[in-house]
């Protein structure tokens, strides 16, 4: 896989930014001042996919790989099909050895997760509305034009299936973020314990860059769930939520 770290401005052409700060941060990156560039990108608000993407590039250069994974994951939430974001996220995960850990073990679960992650919540909502109107229109057409009924009914069924998929995916995205928000482990090694106590028995360890779901939040302790379903209590300071607030542009 080719690392696209040199293409710091690949996303600029498709995103309108409040230019000066972004251009200044890109200039710092191009000059090899990666720490200053990372700080500049982190300072920009509101955050867009391009900002997160380039922040991840700078952090990767600084060997802050866990934070790079976090930045790329945040970029992916806003531009889920962008090939550069997906490639760099995968590359950073591979460097940390967590690319497979961050994927569900079962092929069907892996396929479904990739499907629902391929669109933002807003995009799935628009697909659902479009599917609803298309299905209703085709059913109405089948009623009004008997000669075309067979073909319109078939199309209505197809549109209905699309509507069902969009609705289910939308529901999974919304419920998933509410009941198990995603986070990225930033500590090099984190013990996942059987109980939210410092002296509790260690169940397993989580490496830097591992993606988890927060199943329970007790302030200083999170009940973390890996992609394979294993759960354990970790200290909250060891990880950071992918969507910590609503400042990102959707």
SSE blueprint:
Layout: H1 19-30, H2 34-43, H3 49-61, H4 65-78, H5 83-96, H6 107-116, H7 121-144, H8 149-179, E1 182-185, E2 189-193, E3 202-207, E4 211-217, E5 221-225, E6 231-235, E7 239-241
Antiparallel strand pairs: 1-4, 1-7, 2-3, 4-5, 5-6
Helix pairs in contact: 1-2, 2-3, 3-4, 4-5, 7-8
List keywords for this structure.
five-stranded antiparallel sheet, 3 domains, 8 helices, Serine Threonine Protein Phosphatase 5, Tetratricopeptide repeat, 7 strands, 250 residues, 14% strand, alpha+beta, disordered C terminus, SH3 type barrels, 51% helix, two-stranded antiparallel ribbon
What does this structure look like?
With 250 residues, this protein is α+β, with helices and mostly antiparallel strands. The chain has three domains: 12-96, Tetratricopeptide repeat domain (Serine Threonine Protein Phosphatase 5, Tetratricopeptide repeat), CATH 1.25.40; 108-179; 182-241, SH3 type barrels (Roll), CATH 2.30.30. It is 51% helix and 14% strand. A five-stranded antiparallel beta sheet has the order 6-5-4-1-7. It has a two-stranded antiparallel ribbon with strand order 2-3. The protein starts with 18 loop residues before the first helix and ends in a 9-residue tail after the last strand. The model is unreliable at 6-17 and 246-250 (pLDDT under 50).
């Amino acid at each position: 896989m080719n690392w696209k770290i040199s293409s710091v401005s690949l996303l600029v052409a498709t995103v309108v930014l409040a230019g000066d700060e972004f251009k200044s941060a890109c200039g710092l990156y191009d000059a090899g001042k990666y720490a200053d560039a990372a700080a500049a990108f982190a300072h920009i608000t509101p955050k867009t996919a391009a900002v997160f993407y380039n922040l991840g590039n700078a952090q990767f250069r600084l060997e802050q790989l866990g934070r790079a994974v976090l930045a790329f994951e945040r970029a992916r939430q806003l531009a889920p099909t962008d090939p550069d974001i997906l490639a760099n996220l995968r590359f950073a995960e591979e460097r940390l050895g967590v690319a497979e850990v961050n994927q569900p073990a079962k092929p069907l679960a892996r396929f479904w997760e990739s499907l629902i992650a391929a669109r933002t919540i807003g995009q799935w909502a628009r697909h659902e509305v479009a599917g609803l109107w298309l299905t209703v229109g085709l059913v109405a057409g089948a009623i009004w034009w008997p000669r075309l009924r067979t073909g319109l009914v078939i199309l209505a069924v197809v549109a209905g299936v699309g509507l069902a998929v969009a609705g289910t995916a939308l529901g999974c995205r919304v419920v998933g973020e509410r009941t198990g928000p995603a986070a990225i482990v930033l500590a090099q090694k984190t013990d996942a314990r059987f109980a939210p106590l410092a002296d509790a028995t260690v169940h397993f360890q989580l490496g830097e860059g591992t993606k988890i779901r927060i199943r329970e939040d007790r302030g200083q302790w999170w009940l973390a769930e890996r992609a394979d379903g294993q759960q354990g209590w970790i200290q909250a300071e060891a990880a950071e939520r992918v969507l910590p607030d609503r400042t990102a542009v959707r």
